[in-house]
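For this section, I looked closely at a protein sequence along with its fold in token form, which I now present.
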Amino acid sequence: MNKQRVIFRDLGLMEYKAAWEYQEQLLQENVKKKSAAYSVESRDGNSIPDSRYPQSESLHHLLFVEHPSVYTLGKSGKIEHVLINEEARARKGIEFFHTNRGGDITYHGPGQIVGYPILDLEKFTTDIGKYLRNIEEVIIRTLAEYGIKGDRSSGETGVWIDPDVKGKERKICAIGVRTSRWVTMHGFAFNVNTDLSYFNFIIPCGISNKQVTSLKKELGQKADIEEAKEKVKRNFEEVFDVEWEE
């Protein structure tokens, strides 16, 4: 069986709104292709595939990006988890967006690898839980290459260190996604050399009394972010069993 091909792009430093709009464009292009593929209705009113528009026309993408400082609030998030007022936020040059992803409040900024997979899950698995666990696995394997044991925390999406050690639980990667017609967008935020002080002004992911960490903090020294990107990319390739189209 042929592996799914994924178009990879490293967008560099990009404003959050521009990256969001680009993701939305790629998602809608795939949704349009999939809608065309199911445009013929059967006699009982259910949509059936139209052979003129094969489902295989949908394209997979993985985008890497770093954002200037921004807080993003998921559709189920609570605004009271933002602990900084608008005036103070503006003075610090931090943008703010309500988003259509799952999850609560998080921070994006320089030194963080943000990954946006735009995948047609009907070509992988239509199990959102498994998709989230696979993203976690990518980061867990990446951390292992640095000698760090990443783990999952029961009932909490993302990648943690010491999740079962009370008082030492710390999150190193946040995850929040959206799907439409089984096409994904948004994704993960892996703290590499991130300035963690920005998390002091929010309740990250709506989880109080737990810490946020970074690869830099865990290693005790600044990490090579380009090297970290290569590790994440390679582990994504292995976990999702894909080939790159660049």
Remarks:
- The domain at 4-36+56-239 is CATH 3.30.930.10 (BirA Bifunctional Protein; domain 2).
- The two ends are 21 Å apart (CA to CA).
- The first strand starts at residue 4 and ends at 13.
- The chain is about 25% helix and 30% strand.
